[in-house]
Amino acid sequence: MSIVHHVYFRRALLQSGFHIGAKIGQGTFSSVRLAKHINRRGKIKLLACKIVKLDRCSGEFREKFFPRELEIITSLQHPHLLHVHRVLQLDQCVFIFMQYASGGDLLQYINEHGPLKESAAKRWFWQLLIAIRFLHSKGIAHRDLKCDNILINGRHELLVGDFGFAKRCWDTLGQPVATDGELRPHNWSETFCGSVAYAAPEVIMAQPYDPMVADIWSLGVVLFVLLNCTTPFGEENLARLARLQMDRMYVYSDRLAKPLTTEARMAIDEMLEPYPQQRITLSQLRKLKWLRTK
Question: Is this prediction's pTM over 0.70?
Fold first, then answer.
């Protein structure tokens, strides 16, 4: 970015009350910086700002994924979804001002603190569950659920973020899917999305897949990481990974201070069901004994 453009952007943002600070993250087509907004009364709100330079993005991202992401993130409001404060576009730069999560992301937390006790994991997983249930009720599949994309706010609560691969699912009548417990008919996906370590076997094997059911597999991997401090399948070769997934070849850590309860293992096993038609639903998940007991 030239000095002239930098000054222009800075002045334009200041006119709207926004100040951009230090870089705190970097993505393929974007960077994230600290920011703050000062309203007319002088009240300061700390934010994060995702900056996307459209002229440096791939055509597919610019024309397909990014417009979809903007439409979705500006339409959602939930206590456990990262809230977008404002979106501004100046020339080829898009500034997405969003809620600042002072606790960092879940992967950083687990790497620093180690596996969670079941009581703590249960509390956080419940927050994820109701967030994804809300998304699905709006007809939206996340398609990139992983610990890196789950943030921790100042109240030590979880926020699902990064909707770069999120997609609206539509039923045969062209209406948004509204899930009141079970999934209604909707379009499937064929695009490989997200991280290999969190992707369901049907995604890994490049089959047409139900993105909402694939989200549930990813939730199972997240819970596994919370309780074991590692992903269930340490394999990057897709063919070998798919075989491990289909054969349920994952092992719970034997180095935990306290062995996992049978109920916790059953919850993970139900989500890491390799056959999507037999995988547990969100409605069934909420009724599991592990989540209903303190």
Answer: yes
Cα-based torsion angle of the residue sequence 59, 89, 162, 205 in order, rounded to the nearest 10 degrees = -10
What structural domains and CATH numbers belong to the chain?
3-99 (3.30.200.20), 106-292 (1.10.510.10)
pLDDT, position 99: 96
pLDDT of residue 256: 86
pLDDT-flagged residues of the chain (< 70): 1-7, 171-186
Question: What are the residue numbers of the active site?
Answer: 144
Q: What is the pLDDT of residues 49-69, one digit of tens each?
A: 999 999 888 988 898 999 999
Q: Which amino acid is at 25?
A: G
pLDDT for the residue numbered 185: 57
| The predicted structure's pLDDT at residue 59 | 87
236 Cβ contact list (under 8 Å, min separation 6)? 196
* pLDDT on residue 184: 55
